[in-house]
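Dear colleagues,

I hope this message finds you well. In preparation for our joint manuscript, I am sending the D-alanyl-D-alanine carboxypeptidase/D-alanyl-D-alanine-endopeptidase (Pseudopedobacter beijingensis) sequence together with its predicted structure, so that both groups work from identical material. I would be grateful if you could confirm receipt.
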Amino acid sequence: MKKIFAILCLSLLSNISSAQAISDKIKAAYNIFTKDSQLKYATTSLIVTDKVTGKVLFAHNENVGLAPASTLKTVTSATALAILGEDYQFKTEILYTGNLSGGILNGNILVKGNGDPSLGSNRFPETKKETILNQVLSAVKALGINRINGDVIVDNAVWDSQNLPEGWVWQDMGNYYGAGTSAVCWGENEFELKFKPSVPGGKVELTEDAFVYPFLKIINELETGAAGTGDKVYGYSAPYAQEVYLRGSYAVNLKKAIRFSLPDPALAMAYELNNALRKNNVAINGYTTTRNLKKENQKYTFEGKNITTIYSPKLIDLVYPFNQNSLNLYGEQMLRAMAAKDGNTIKDGLNVLKDFWGKRDIDKNTLNIGDGSGLSPANRVTAASMIKVLLWATQQSWYNGFLASLPLYNDMKMKSGTIGDVLAYSGYHKNYCFTIMVNNYNGTTSSMRQKMFTLLNSLK
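The corresponding structure tokens are as follows:
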């Protein structure tokens, strides 16, 4: 017994010594890091804990609220997995109204969704536009329908009209990463354009094969940039708008398609389904959305018979591209799904998220956020609270899937966050859990990133 006790004591002393050594190592590296000239006017925050015990090994400014950028996605995805469950699936119902007789439907085709962000996405074989449209077509054909005396109507009025989180900036909203939420998404709520530059300072034209939805008007104000200046193209549009302004420059030697956010993804889905029916010899009138009908003061009923139901991949599978590819849309759709009992609003989704962590020893005031993706520069979160979320996640049944969703940077599993003069990382390495945030640094992002990696190397 004395021998066993002695071994346990030695093991305990060894662990204490190891923890002290890593703490000293991090402290020394952090002191060097904060003296860098790029951080002269910056605010930095770092916290490192033992992943198993939760013991804090180093912390500085861990209770100061900073802009987390996309590291906020770790909080949103963990909350969604906890509240909705890792096997949760979004569903989209295809219905028909009216009477069906002799292959003729005297009614409408209705599309009713609950916010599937992957509908029409190329990220999964089962969610691609062609696959979705073929599923609907097959179901329509199975009913023997060859003529529809009505329209394709997609229901986007089931959610409130506030489809963008408050705090998103104008320069982001019209671009693919600023795509707004929708009860029925389509192709991740973005569209792509191809360009043909001329000479530096000259005009940039759309290529002849560039596809533009017929309900959109592209106002092209782009200039050709000098060789090597790359993509400085920005789209400017508002939710449900019909005009998209293109501003900035496109390098003379650039050969790249640019993606922009769809002002009305539900209308895009209605158009493509209507078009697919026509191409497959199913006659149909037009296409619209319930929001457009409501705007036109037209009465409509959204009850019908089911044609087919489309299910999204499981939530744990959606979390993977959400974190790996930093898909802002997925986070905002998850936020709304968490507020299903409260009307699927962004505001209620935020309240659900904060209430959830408020019951788990996290002060709601440390989660001062306006979105679920981290795109808003007004978000303020403390590193200490983010660590609590990451530590709590390690005890959950879905942890392995959550961990797998985090990208690998610097040989560490961590989510990055980057917006104007903000760079942050949050994740795991070996037996450690960490969050580091830097706000208002100067100089290049690439240089700041390497210096942060050097600091985090103290955990290796």
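For the figure legend, we might mention the following. The longest strand covers residues 243-251. Confidence is low (pLDDT under 50) at residues 8-14.

With kind regards,
E.M.
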